[in-house]
Amino acid sequence: MSTGKNSKKFIVTIDQEKIEPDLARETVIKYDPLNRSGQEGGFYIDENEELHIDNEKVMEAHKMAINRYPYENAIQMIQLPFEEGEKVHQFHDNSFRLYGLPVPENGRVTGIIGKNGIGKSVSLNILSGELKPNLGNFEKPPEWDEIVKEYRGTGLQTHFEELSSEGIESAFKPQQVERLPQAYEGKVRELLEGVDEKDSLEEIAEEVDIDHLLDRELKQLSGGELQRVAIASTLLKDAELYMFDEPSSFLDVKQRLKTGRKIREIGEKQENTVLAVEHDLATLDLISDNIHIFYGEQASYGMVSKALSTREGINNYLDGYLPASNVRFRSNSIKFDRTKRSQVEKKPVVLSFDEMAKDFGEGEFELEIESGKVHEEEVLAIFGENGLGKTVFAKMLAGAIETDEGESPDISISYKPQYLEAENETVKEAISNYVNPENKKFENRIAEPLNLEDLYENNLEELSGGELQKVGIAICLSRDAEVYLLDEPSAYLDVESRVELGKMLKRFARKEGKPLMIIDHDLMMLDYVADRGMVFKGEPGKGGEGSKPMSIGKAMDSFLEEVDITFRKDPDSGRLRANKPGSQKDQDQRSSGEYYEK
């Protein structure tokens, strides 16, 4: 289907779980403009008592009929910016549809960026051969010869020819690595030996920094450790196509750059095809040779841009505009300008902690923390590599770990762990354990900014990583506490969601007058939201030292000097870009002590 760029084209998505047939007959169907004029193609109830409409017949006047149905978001009419080319895949009537695909290239890393829920994973499944594209014909799916013919003369023709004949050996690193211990019980070494097709387990383990974890049980590993194990298991496979879904989640800055370089290496040196979905822009910038932008409406439709250069692709995405196609897919641009900091030191002190220390025994981990104070309305960023005791510090503050020196403050702290355990209950039930979901303050300050209401009837076990993350954040902030401590709240969230999260956290702190402490590795989000910062230094897994709170600028410079990385700011968007080690820009920033360009 193709329409002019400036024409108005609408599609309708229907949540059948929210449709009551009799109510639909009395509202949507009765007031449908096509039905009222005796024409065909309007809303109707089928033999399964489900509501449908012919999307080719949808017009702007249908909005009035849809508005008659009383259940919010049960029926949504969406105006497409424009559609170009034919459908790649559609699951069934009035369901998600995908237009376009990224084009894999040998010896190159193709980056993929876009909101969650608009077809990135569907694309990976199609390109790997796990899902056969139906070209929009879900009732009579085409055979491979028809699919190949459809893409004749394009970069995808050869790829689909190979899929149709012998298939393509692919290796896939999934998004939600915390589920790995549920799928495999045993030690890391046993898991990796089972997938090692290159006979290079020891080498890969050292390169992704898990050689010291090989004899540990998977269930004992942290989120960052599980992520590196999942990346290693993907790299060990002898494949033609490698796919990485959010490889940076739970990794610290140094680990992101290290694994990012390894992902680049398998594309460049081994001439493999690599696809990577990534929301951390610094990592995406590092690993990608080119970028495809996904845009559309979550759970409704997805469209794919042509291949763009890395810098052009990221900046077009942040602008929300594709100049080459004259398509605006977001009403606002995303900028990473620093917001005005609150003069928090002038506010009353809410949390005061003495010097604290914890020694887990001879040869085990040791942690020392300088004394500090946290003030009303403050957002305090906590920087540091993994394995330096940031989470231990959080648990010491909350009284969950007993200190050896100093005392845990007598204060109520609401703590969000790295990831939420998915229980067999709905999102609404989970939130209702802590707050009434219909409470207006909760709706306005937490639920609405996180777009939670659309998830209320979904089971926690069915949620994506990003959706589960939002539920965990909402539960943490809904508790009655004096201090809120969030551990890696940005994991699995797309760029738009991270920006909205930053705004919401800042507003929450200011409106509630409560301090927030945030442990995260997304430097752009921390720089955007934080008033001050703490920096953890030391030797991962052996010993860590936590600084007192300091200005955010000093904290950023101190942290980046510790991990030996300099970042510059993109002149157009203000986003972080890692400097190439030894480059003139890198040398200039080091000599001035400005590891993070302000």
Account of the protein in words:
By secondary structure, the chain is an alpha/beta fold. Among the domains are: 9-80, no CATH class; 169-239; 344-563, Rossmann fold, CATH 3.40.50.300; 566-598, no CATH class. The strands form 7 sheets. Strands 5, 6, 7, 8, 9, 10, 11, 12 and 13 form a 9-stranded mixed sheet that branches. The two termini are 47 Å apart. Residues 1-6 have low confidence and may be disordered.
Outline the biggest β-sheet. Answer: 9 strands, mixed
Percent of residues in helices: 25-40%
- Give me the CATH superfamily of the domain at 344-563: P-loop containing nucleotide triphosphate hydrolases
User: Which word captures the global form?
Assistant: globular
Calculate the mean pLDDT score and round it.
89
Question: What would the keywords be for this entry?
Answer:
single chain, alpha/beta, nine-stranded mixed β-sheet, disordered N terminus
Strands, helices and their partners?
Elements: E1 9-14, H1 21-31, H2 33-36, E2 44-45, E3 51-52, H3 62-67, E4 75-80, E5 87-90, E6 97-99, E7 109-114, H4 120-128, H5 144-150, H6 157-165, E8 170-173, H7 180-183, H8 188-195, H9 201-207, H10 223-235, E9 241-245, H11 253-268, E10 273-277, H12 281-287, E11 290-297, E12 301-304, E13 308-309, H13 310-319, E14 321-322, E15 327-328, E16 349-353, E17 356-359, E18 366-369, E19 372-375, E20 379-383, H14 390-398, E21 413-416, H15 427-432, H16 440-447, H17 465-478, E22 483-487, H18 495-512, E23 516-519, H19 523-529, E24 532-539, E25 543-546, E26 550-551, H20 552-563, E27 567-569, E28 576-578, H21 584-592
